[in-house]
Specification:
The chain is α+β, with helices and mostly antiparallel strands. It is built from eleven helices and 13 strands.
Length: about 350
């Protein structure tokens, strides 16, 4: 496989819609995908690129905030992170991943009074949904399988607990569900070692999340000089007489999947990627995988090229023919906003 050279200057000179179709970016996407996923999925890097480059530019066309506000470098890393994740940007109710723009503090200056003042820029972030995370964690060997989440109504029999150190769920569906009152949602997960885990959400859990959502949607009342709390995401529904929210069932299922992996180890993702369940701080992906020439590292917030560090007298390893990924090592190192569904 030939060496592919890219510079940050070349990336920053591209228009947003031209990033995914650039020849260098195309070759690097295919190289990454075929090294990491083609052996296990059987999908060629070229086929994945053709699909995801169309998805990427469709999103840019639809979302003006991403197209006009995000830095070119963050768009570049987000697109290559699609190859690193092995997931798809296909739209739908069970979307595996999508793009978000977020404001990030990249530097700080001192104002006239000598106080530190952060400087922000807008970056594009590849976000892996709960559905994508299920697939991703299975691929890296953390889980074998996860059943579809089950909605539990007041008419059903449901018991959740722990016995001898193992979680258990006893559930019996009792039809018809005339009340429409949801009392729980649970999902059965089979770990890589064959043991069983359960993720359970109760009314107090989604009521708490609805409170977070309302605070995130608060607005500043300039006239009264105070924050006014907003309404939670409409999919949480209305608060009932029992002080719980009548949550949308599809929304609850997505939330159950998302929060199932809160306590699981971090999952290996790219630098411009976040999992909905966990905001990963320590990344396992090195700068070299993005194909930046001369081995320089890059500040992913600013796009600033950092000088190559001297690693000693030993010669650098030859990676001109690609890299070999140890699945067992990847599994050992693998590990994970709230209202995006």
């Amino acid at each position: 496989m030939s060496k592919i050279n890219l510079t940050v200057e070349q990336i920053n000179d591209l228009q947003p819609q031209d990033i995914a179709t650039n020849d260098f970016v195309r070759d690097k996407f295919i190289q990454i995908y075929e090294a990491m996923w083609t052996p296990s999925t059987g999908v060629s890097g070229e086929a994945a690129y053709e699909r995801e480059s169309r998805n990427f530019n469709r999103i840019l066309a639809e979302k003006e905030d991403i197209r006009k506000s995000c830095t070119r470098f963050s768009l570049f890393t987000a697109f290559l992170d699609v190859a690193i994740s092995g997931l798809s940007l296909d739209a739908g109710t069970r979307a595996q991943a999508y793009l978000l723009s977020r404001s990030i503090a990249v530097d700080s200056d001192l104002d006239q009074q000598g106080n530190k003042k952060n400087r922000y820029e807008t970056q594009c972030v590849l976000t892996i949904s709960g559905y994508g995370e299920l697939l991703h964690r299975a691929r890296v060997g953390q889980i074998r399988h996860a059943d579809n989440p089950v909605i539990v109504y007041a008419e059903d029999e449901f018991e959740f607990g722990e016995r001898n150190g193992n979680k258990f769920v006893n559930y019996t569906c009792r039809l018809p569900h005339t009340s429409g009152n949801i009392v729980a949602c649970f999902m059965k997960i089979t770990r890589a070692d064959g043991s069983v885990d359960y993720a359970v959400m109760l009314p107090e859990d989604w009521s708490r999340l609805a409170g977070y959502s309302a605070r995130q949607n608060r607005k500043w009342d300039n006239q009264n000089r105070r924050w006014v709390e907003g309404a939670p995401n409409a999919l949480y529904g209305q608060r009932g007489q029992d002080n719980t929210f009548k949550i949308d069932t599809g929304f609850l299922i997505a939330k159950c999947i998302k929060h199932a992996f809160k306590s699981y180890p971090k999952a290996r993702v790219g630098r411009a990627t976040q999992l909905e369940s966990q905001q990963v701080e320590e990344m396992e992906i090195s700068d070299g995988i993005y194909g930046l020439e001369d081995g320089s590292s890059v500040n992913t917030s600013t796009g600033e090229i950092m000088p190559k560090q001297d690693t000693g007298f030993a010669p650098a390893p030859d990676t001109s023919n690609g890299v070999t990924i140890d699945p067992e090592a990847s599994a050992d190192n693998a590990g994970g906003n709230d209202d995006v569904f």
